[in-house]
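Task: sequence in, structure out. Protein: Reverse transcriptase domain-containing protein.
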Amino acid sequence: MNEVCFTYEGVLSLLLNLDPKKAVGPDAVSPVIMLRCAHVFASYLVILFNKSLREHALPNEWKSANVVPVFKSGKRQNVENYRPVSLLSMPSKIMEHVIYSCIVKHLNGNNYFSSMQHGFRQSFSCTTQLIEFHHVLASNFDRGYQTDVIFVDFYKAFDMVPHSYLLHKLSFLGLDNDVLHWLREYLNDRAQRVVINGKRSSECKVTSGVPQGSVLGPLLFLVFINDITVGIQSHIRLFADDCVIYREIQSLNDSQKLQDDIVRVGLWCETWGMRLNTNKCKAMRVSRKRSTVDFSYKLGSTNLEIVHEFKYLGITFSENLKWTSHVNNVTAKAIRTLLFLFRNIRQATVKAKRDTYVSMVRPILEYACLVWDPHESFLIKKLERVQNIAARLVFNCVGSNVSVSELKERLGWVTLATRRQELRLQMLDSIVNDKTGIVKESYIKSPVFISSRLD
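Result:
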């Protein structure tokens, strides 16, 4: 790995891209001030960053976090219904950006990351992960084969990572010596406090986990979990800590091999100080056969529940690979969101209401639609119905006889089916031209015979 050096130009570029709306961290350094005084800050931060790296030392404020609990849903009295949001030092995150870029460049140059990991990596995404996962399921399904799928759930994965084991793995990456020692200090003696309505709790030490809300945290987790794929004989896919193992099943012997891989994942967790959430780990059989190969998969001494459908990375997969449940889920969510928003912006301008739908409702209907784009007409109509309602709400003409096609034309909206087709073509272009992490040879086959009449 090349030596890391902080430059005025590099730090200035990061400062000028700061979001002034970000909250301040424990050091109370405002991103607004850093942005407005970027040219002055850059000079001093370069000196500070280089000194921190060479001396392997960080200010205590850079290793502390203000944790703000954000309510999700359910009973407000239940602490499990709150999502902890960590606010960190802004100068520390600027320094982390530079170190992150250098480490990623080094690891990518050495093909370190497993090709099965699509989380927090350039050219990879939830969509690429889902495309690859669904491709195997659909291919086996079309050939009449059964695929058994194990959905693995880690217990608080990002918070459980033991620092000593993480540092052990980092020591084998060929990192610059200063960077390795700096990372050791970065993880050592971290602390956090809860902040509610301006009131702070007493500080407590953080003895495990990667720093939440940090720049380096996701990368450190990828390094830690990367070798979980070693020795696995079935298909295994990761999106950060979202893990799925699956295998084509033609006999009980195939099922036993998949069970052996479940055991291997369990042993990896025991070896590296991680835990699996047994109650949330599920199994599913994907098949068009009436008679399937039945096998009771176990995680430790617990039998895994066989489910008929499962929500993986936001997409509801069913055992028959139909998308009825998923479309029902997304249309219901989109309608709820649409009606809630439009109740509050009824008097807004047409442009404001149009933009609200486009930015806050349509993405619900199109998330990862490259994977689940339905061919059944009743599902296509059900999705389009949401957009039809939105068009009428934009013009405040619900219940009128005005043609919805005319309304959508005035708004410049094509059908959602047309948009899904365009998105699929864009992804095809990205795969063909190597703009994604998907290996095109797995999806695009060379023709066996080309007629001379086409020359």
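Residues 123 and 435 are 7 Å apart (CA to CA).
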